[in-house]
Amino acid sequence: MFVDRIKVYVKAGNGGNGCISFRREKYVPKGGPNGGNGGDGGSVIFVADPGTSSLVDLKFNQHIDAEHGGHGLGSDMHGNRGEDLYVKVPPGTVVMDINNDNYQICDLDEPESEIVIAQGGKGGRGNRSFATSINRVPRQAEEGYPGEELVLLLELKTIADVGLVGYPNAGKSTFLNSVSNSGAKTASYPFTTLNPIVGTIDFPDFTRITIADIPGLVEGAHENIGLGHHFLRHIERTNNLVYVLDMNGTDGRDPLDDLVKLKEELELYEEGLSDRACMILANKMDNPASEENLERLRKETDLTIFPVIAELRDGVDEVLEFLHKRVMELKKSKVKHVPKLKNIYRKEGAVVVDLEADGDDFALSSDDDFDFDVEDLDYDDFYDDIDEDEV
Ligand SMILES: Nc1nc2c(ncn2[C@@H]2O[C@H](COP(=O)(O)OP(=O)(O)OP(=O)(O)O)[C@@H](O)[C@H]2O)c(=O)[nH]1
Ligand SMILES: [Mg+2]
After folding, report:
1. pLDDT digit string, tens, across residues 192-207
2. Which family is this protein grouped under (predicted)?
3. What integer pLDDT is reported at residue 171 of this predicted model?
4. pLDDT in tens, 24-77
5. Which ligand is nearest to the CA of 168?
6. What order do you get walking across the sheet with 85-89 strand by strand?
7. pLDDT category, 230, cuts 50, 70, 90?
8. Does residue 168 sit in the same domain as residue 251?
């Protein structure tokens, strides 16, 4: 089973209570306070685990509770720290706070990234911690603080470089299987694929692209007809969309008509979504009617069209080459060059920051038009890297 939307209750551990206790020994009748502190409660931590592909390990309405901290004891014994609870979720999981208008707490879109979803409560201090020179016998201790508690909506939004969009039976899974080992089931009936399946393609230059087989769209998908939202959600995060058309026009369909309607569905779900279409995979070109449809299609659209017989792997390499190039170019343009700090010093009262980016040196001075206040800068991290004398 594949689950991509689930509600869970999350509760971090409470801190343990502090203890009130006094040293009592045979020859020490009036011993000092020795009540230990309570241990901190464990936190609930979500981890984006690449080995997890669906939220199926969690049950709807499941309670996810981290361990409480132990209470403090006499003889200065502190309570044990509650253990943190790590919960594996698939990369691409969006975490929302149900009690706060589905406010988005985080988006675990980076594999291996983790976030403390609910912070464990701090342990209370025992009476030993309250002793002062004035009050040597404090009869006072703190209770542990409660751990954070949340009701969450987890939603998985597939992350892939390319998304295959098409009507049921167009041949999306057949294509993906022909180029990757996705193992998507193919069959001659619609809705064979019910969940997004991501195939990975490795290239000889050690780059890789991922292609998601997004289940068949139907008219009205934007209104959630045919589980439309369930499918469309996974297109939101795919930067390159490929329209997969059945050029045969099986079941009385017309590929040109399909193209118009697919575009329409995307736009109705989210304005501008259809701008992400980068090509048309004109499939099932193994039929005489297909050639004629292809000619008509060429006149109707400016998108690059690749005629393909997915079933025979005919033409699929050209498609891969095109997608590979496109994805890599997009990725390259997104790389941010973070400037490297070389030096900070004062010059005539102004703070000057020397930076290096892309092999070029440049300097910023507080005399320049900064849109932040130099005094507000946190230099601590910078100072670690540079010579104290120069500052
Ligand atoms: N003639 C012909 N049939 C094809 C070709 N590619 C796929 N098919 C057939 O079309 C049918 C549907 O293929 P799928 O890959 O399951 O289609 P899909 O788009 O994944 O369909 P859903 O998962 O239902 O959305 C299967 O019977 C395939 O064998 C092709 O190039 N030529
Ligand atoms: Mg399929």
Report:
1. 555 667 788 888 888 8
2. Belongs to the TRAFAC class OBG-HflX-like GTPase superfamily. OBG GTPase family.
3. 92
4. 877 767 778 999 999 999 999 999 887 776 776 778 888 999 999 999 998 999
5. 1
6. 85-89, 44-48, 114-118
7. low
8. yes
Closest CA relative to residue 9, chosen from 70, 71, 87, 84: 87
How far apart, in whole angstroms, are the C-alpha atoms of residue 65 and residue 53? 23
168 C-alpha to center of ligand 2: Å?
7
The residue type found at 227 is L
Spacing, Cα 123 to ligand 1 middle (Å): 60
Q: Which domain holds residue 279?
A: 160-334
Q: State the angle between helix axes of 288-300 and 255-269 in degrees (0 to 180), rounded to the nearest 10.
A: 50
What would the mean pLDDT of 205-227 be, rounded to a whole number?
71
Q: Contact, 235 vs 241, CB < 8 A?
A: yes
User: How high is the pLDDT of residue 373?
Assistant: 46
Return the residue whose CA atom lies nearest to atom 3 of ligand 1. 284
Is residue 42 within 8 A of residue 13, CB to CB? The reply is yes
Indicate whether 190 and 313 sit together in one domain: yes
Mean pLDDT of 301-305: 94
Measured over all CA atoms, what is the biggest interatomic distance in the chain, rounded to whole angstroms? 106
Tokens at residue 367, please? Answer: 């005399």
**Ligand 1 nearest-atom number relative to CA 189:** 24
Mutate to test the pocket of ligand 1, among 174, 258, 306, 316 (most ligand atoms within 8 A of CB): 174
List, chain by chain if needed, residues with CB within 6 Å of any ligand 1 atom. 166, 168-174, 186-188, 190-193, 215-216, 283-284, 286, 309-311
> DSSP assignment of 102-151, as one string?
TEEEEEE-STT-EEEEEPPPPPPPPGGGG--SS-SS----PPPPPPPEEE
Note whether 360 and 284 are same-domain residues: no
Among candidate residues 124, 156, 188, the one where a domain is terminated: 156
Q: Is residue 27 located within the same domain as residue 147? A: yes
Mean pLDDT score of the chain = 82
DSSP-derived secondary structure letter, 33: B
